[in-house]
Design brief:
The structure is a single chain. The protein is an alpha/beta fold. It has 3 domains: about 1-310, ABC transporter type 1, transmembrane domain (ABC transporter transmembrane region fold); about 325-410 and about 490-580, Rossmann fold; about 420-490, P-loop containing nucleotide triphosphate hydrolases (Rossmann fold, 3-Layer(aba) Sandwich), CATH 3.40.50.300. Helix content is about 65%, strand content about 10%. Strands 6-9-10-3-11-12 form a 6-stranded mixed sheet, with helices on both faces. A 4-stranded antiparallel sheet has the order 2-1-4-5, covered by helices on one side. Helix 19 links the parallel strand 9 and strand 10. The longest helix has about 50 residues, at about 50-100. The protein is elongated. The protein starts with a helix and ends with a helix. The model has no long low-confidence stretch (mean pLDDT about 85). The structure holds adenosine-5'-triphosphate (ATP). The site of adenosine-5'-triphosphate has 13 residues, from helix 13. It comes from Sporosarcina contaminans. One of its GO terms (molecular function) is ATP binding.
Length: about 575
């Protein structure tokens, strides 16, 4: 809670002013029964019209002040709570962005989305309501009690009859509430996860006719959310009747014993009326308690979930020392005995991998699916750090480069092309926001996507992503490659990013990349692509099982020969099909 609410600190003066205004409003409310008592005892019963007019006017003036204070309080409360939520959302977003992959994988995406949306709204509402009514209700209870004692101690004591039971009951309910609402937020995470998966996979779901199946899956998680929320709310709904029962019993005691006190002359009618008035105000305030406990419980659960994110320890150390050199234009890359385990896994995904790529060389990486190719590539820009061994870029261990320097020098094209909503131009300049337009077009030409873009009516201003044109798989791959080229990387990493290209386009792409001053790592399944590389690294179950040129591997590696043979058979079948 502390970390989350520390984001309200910059608005402490707004909060203080809002609280003072709220106290002003509250004081007026508390003084009013006292004035009523005075009007009854000294005005009505004493038949003194002047007293009635004087105190009546004071009451009116005070009501106006309370009205004004309430209005301004709302203004400050809204401003403080909205600004607090804005800052908190920014902080959470930045924190999630700064996560290492290892930390990121600890939180399901849907959970992060819920934290950034519904959880923040929950604490924002609590701050707003806190400044408006939540604090006001308990203060009204305490204030009314104090005022009741000021009016008549004996009568006020009857109001306290139910206090201990009430207090214990409220504490128990508040504790239960936090646990129940934490569960509700978890269920909401799961609902969000199913929604997210469904929206992403909408085409697949249609193609597999899995709409009904997914609807059932959604019903199940939505039903769990409903059940948990109902349980929590039912528990909370107990609060109001119990509170009212206790308060009404206390009120009965006041009236019962109050009548006796008036008859014996120990109390006046006006005093009894004032105390009943305070008791009614306390009851009214208590009726807010159910709502307050629900809101506080939800906000506490939400704050704890956000705190998990804000306090998540990031273990990726950024070398902040002096930059003693720049990564060369064509980065030299060396893996020395690199092993890697995914967090919490017992089996290594990479097992003592060593190889060297000289500046400007092109290394093709091959291996069966799951061999560890993508994992290996992710270690270069330090998406993960190796568990053992070292990786050197331009002669320096990757952990010794400042992270920005290292990542600036790398152009990574992931296996799945990811584009952002916006124009083609915006997607290209995402690679380097300072790159001039002609460089963006140059990159597009090299990536063999310029001609396709030219055919769109709006050319580079064509919108992609949601509500924009849907690019084909191959177009997306080429756009992703162009985006990486815009960075003018020293090391260009293509993770199976040409799989959707036809042979002609791919050949043109490799020809265009020939002139690029970059060391290249290319994951590929195609022997044809590997043949064009200076060296080929063959991975199997995380181990290097072959390294050399195409000719070397044809000679040394049975696995490579098998892949080559299967692909030449495939080509033969295609040839036959084409000629028949
Ligand atoms: N985040 C993760 N946590 C645990 N295991 C993972 C994670 N990501 C990948 N793996 C496992 O690591 C192994 C290697 O995965 P990787 O993606 O590196 O393989 P790959 O050779 O690129 O495969 P493909 O050619 O199919 O893309 C796989 O067995 C995969 O299940």
């Amino acid at each position: 809670m502390k970390t989350v609410f520390s984001y309200a600190k910059p608005y402490k003066w707004l909060i203080v002013i809002a609280l003072l205004l709220m106290l002003m409003e509250l004081s007026v409310e508390l003084i009013q029964p006292l004035l009523i008592a005075k009007i009854i005892d000294d005005g009505i019963l004493a038949e003194n019209v002047k007293v009635i007019w004087t105190w009546g006017s004071v009451m009116m003036a005070l009501s106006f002040i309370a009205f004004f204070a309430g209005g301004v309080n709302s203004f400050f409360a809204a401003h403080a709570s909205q600004s607090f939520a804005f800052d908190l959302r920014q902080a959470l977003f930045r924190q999630v962005q700064s996560f290492t992959m290892a930390t990121f994988l600890r939180f399901p995406t849907s959970g992060l989305i819920t934290r950034l949306t519904s959880d923040i709204t929950m604490v924002q509402n609590v701050l707003f309501m806190g400044l408006r009514i939540m604090l006001r209700a308990p203060l009204l209870v305490v204030g009314s009690l104090v005022m009741a004692f000021v009016v008549n101690v004996k009568l006020a004591l009857y109001l306290l009859i139910g206090a201990p039971v009430l207090l214990i009951f409220l504490i128990v309910m508040a504790r239960k509430g936090v646990g129940l609402f934490a569960q509700v937020q978890k269920r909401l995470d799961r609902v969000n996860r199913v929604i997210q998966e469904n929206l992403q996979a909408v085409r697949l779901i249609k193609a597999y006719l899995r709409g009904a199946y997914e609807a059932t899956r959604f019903s199940k998680v939505a039903d769990l959310l409903r059940k948990n929320t109902v349980t929590a709310m039912r528990m909370m709904e107990l609060i109001l009747p119990v509170l009212l029962f206790i308060m009404n019993a206390s009120l009965m005691a006041v009236l019962w014993f109050g009548a006796g006190e008036i008859q014996s002359g120990d109390a006046q009618v006006g005093e009894l009326v004032a105390i009943v008035n305070y008791a009614l105000r306390m009851t009214g305030a208590f009726s807010m308690f159910a709502f307050i406990i629900v809101s506080l419980s939800r906000a506490k659960a939400s704050a704890e979930r956000m705190e998990e994110v804000l306090l998540a320890n990031d273990d990726l150390e950024d070398h902040q020392g002096e930059i003693s050199g720049m990564i060369d234009l064509e980065g030299d890359l060396r893996f020395e005995d690199v092993s890697f385990y995914y967090p919490g896994k017992a089996e290594p995904i990479l097992d003592r991998v060593s190889f060297h790529v000289s500046p400007g060389e092109k290394l093709a990486i091959m291996g069966s699916t799951g061999a560890g190719k993508s994992t290996l590539l992710n270690l270069i820009p330090r998406i993960f750090d190796p568990t053992d061994g070292e990786i050197y870029v331009s002669g320096k261990e990757v952990r010794d480069w400042p992270l920005k320097e290292l990542r600036d020098a790398i152009g990574l094209v992931p296996q799945q092309s990811i584009l952002f909503t916006g124009s083609i131009m915006e997607n290209l300049s995402w690679g380097d926001t300072d790159a001039p337009v002609d460089e963006l077009e140059e990159a597009a030409k090299k990536a063999q996507i310029h001609e396709s873009i030219d055919l769109f009516p709006k050319k580079y201003e064509t919108r992609v992503g949601q509500k924009g044109v849907n690019l084909s798989g191959g177009q997306k791959q080429r756009l992703s490659i162009a985006r990486a080229l815009v960075r003018k990387p020293s090391i260009l990493i293509l993770d199976d990013s040409t799989s959707a290209l036809d042979v002609k386009t791919e050949t043109a792409l490799w020809d265009a990349l020939e002139g690029e001053r970059a060391t290249m790592l290319v994951v590929t399944q195609k022997i044809q692509t590997a043949k064009g590389a200076d060296h080929i690294l063959l991975l199997d179950e995380g181990k290097v099982v072959g390294y050399g040129t195409h000719a070397d591997l044809m000679e040394q590696s049975a696995l490579y020969r098998k892949i080559a043979q299967s692909q030449s058979e495939e080509e033969a079948v295609i040839d036959v099909a084409n000629h028949s």
